[in-house]
Each structure stands twice: as C-alpha cells, then as structure tokens.
Amino acid sequence: MTELGTGQAAHAAQADGEVLAELRTLRASIDNLDAALVHLLAERFKCTQKVGELKAAHSLPPADPDREAEQIRRLRRLAEESQLEPQFAEKFLNFIVEEVVRHHKLIAAATKGAKADTAG
Ligand SMILES: C=C(O[C@@H]1C=C(C(=O)O)C=C[C@H]1O)C(=O)O
C-alpha cells in the first residue's frame, strides 16, 4: 500500500469525520424511532390487555382470525404505499398478534379459575 501525502491524509481524515458525523446523526434518529416504537407497542398492549379482559369476561375466544386477516390486508396495503416490504409488515403484525393471543389465553384461564373459585 502506498503512503498518503500530508494533503491526502488530511482529506481522508476529514472525510472520515464527515462519515462519522453522518453516522451519529442517523443513529440518533434510529434511537428516537426505536423509543417511539417501544412507546407505541406499550400503548397497543394496554389496549389489547383490555380487549383480553373484555373477551374473558364474556367468554369470547382469545383469537379472531377474521379480524387478523382484515388487519393483514390493510397493513400490506399501507406498507406498499410506504415502500415497506408487505411481507415484512405481515410478519411483524403476526409476531405481535401471536403474543397478544398468548396473553388473552392466560387472561381467559385466570378468569375461568377465579370464577371456579367463587362458585365454591
Ligand atoms: C385484540 C384482539 O384480539 C386478538 C389480537 C389482535 C391484535 O393484536 O390486533 C387481533 C385479533 C385477535 O386475534 C381483537 O380481537 O381485537
């Protein structure tokens, strides 16, 4: 490898500095977006917790496949419009819904147990 002249070395160091500055700026935005995602997910889970309690109280099934299919169709369309891979949007929703349904099953079991206890 050839040695860089003083001018070239200074130029390379400046370019590195600019690259690092851009990386830092982009990462600051990524950190803000990740924080927003966590907050959005926390709010979503607060809603789904209430849905789970409502369903358990009225003996409704924990999962609703028709509703899920409708949500997938909608999110795939929104993803396409936003230049996000629809397949990724579908996978992401399925990942969240799977966790929600797991919670709903636990709530249903706990509600059943509590009813059985009070039935004496
Ligand atoms: C939240 C619900 O329960 C489940 C979870 C869903 C979700 O996380 O969006 C959607 C449908 C159901 O399988 C619901 O029925 O609305």
Automatic annotation (TrEMBL):
EC code: 5.4.99.5
GO biological process: chorismate metabolic process; salicylic acid biosynthetic process
SUPFAM superfamilies according to UniProt: Chorismate mutase II (SSF48600)
SMART domains per UniProt: CM_2
One Gene Ontology MF term: chorismate mutase activity
The keyword DNA-binding belongs to this UniProt entry's keyword annotation: no
Superkingdom as given in the UniProt entry: Bacteria
UniProt keyword annotations, A-Z: Isomerase
InterPro entries xref list: Chorismate_II_sf (IPR036263), Chorismate_mutase-related (IPR051331), CM_bact (IPR010951), CM_dom_sf (IPR036979), CM_II_prokaryot (IPR002701)
Domain called Chorismate mutase: residue spans: 17-108
Name of the protein described by the UniProt record: Chorismate mutase
Species of origin: Actinospica acidithermotolerans
